[in-house]
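Is fe (ii) ion placement plausible here? Inputs below.
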Amino acid sequence: MNNKPFDLDNDAAYQSWRETKLENYPTKAEQLVVEINNPHELSKSEKQALVDCCKKTNMAVYISPTGEDPDKNIPFDLARQFGLRELNKNMGADDDGITALKVQNDPLHKRYIPYTNHAIHWHTDGYYNASDQQIRALNLHCVRPAKEGGENAVMDHEIAYILLRDDNPEHIQAFMQDNAMTIPENVVDGNEIRPARSGPVFSVIGDNQLHMRYTARAHNVIWSQDATTQSAVAALDALLHSDSKYIYRLTLQSGWGLISNNVLHDRSGFTDDVAHPRLLYRSRYHDALQLS
Ligand SMILES: [Fe+2]
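Reply from A.M.:
I modeled the complex. Tokens:
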């Protein structure tokens, strides 16, 4: 018998992992919160509290006293303390690799929803990336919230896996197919910026680490047409639109941030105070949070 909980042929390993995972699992966003004094240098107990939370839920929220300080070393230094080094430099990112998420109206940015004040549907980051360029960790640091809105909903992708597998293991089988989802090519002014890419929703990386690629935005994905995939897509959609106790909602405030192993998330639309617009720093890493 192997010890692989994500192997559909190994129900014993799955049940054992599942039981441990769900034991004392947080059901409120407040349970993810850790207050820290200095993001540049965490105390031992602060670090341990963040590690413990991430081990359980693949994410944690910190509250730091940095307020509206726009110093990018805040997210950089925090990430470094969790072993994150390989920043993904996506198209809209600044030269240092961190992306300033704010409303931007220039031609490069305005085509992409993150740089508008519109709602963003459920997704994981970088679902359109090549298989060897996947985003394992996603961090957000809030310099300034919106005047109104800009709330994030988040859900641990391992919990999504459990709820889907418990509902019907065929959902998992469908979502692990190499052609489960195809992201259409990105063409701007006749130039192909990214080719079409197919891949699985769930995959297992290295030592039993579950990875998830997903977008609820129908425009951005072509699902495999077989009945089991269609059924899995509907089940996940229903789950993400349910009032599941495993969906946390929070609006990051100045000096707060989220560190995560690229969990499922969305964002509500928002209204800016024009003089003090919303600003979040987003960092995407090819490595996962180091939690030992
Ligand atoms: Fe995102």
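Short version: The pocket of fe (ii) ion is lined by residues 123, 125, 265 (CB under 6 Å).
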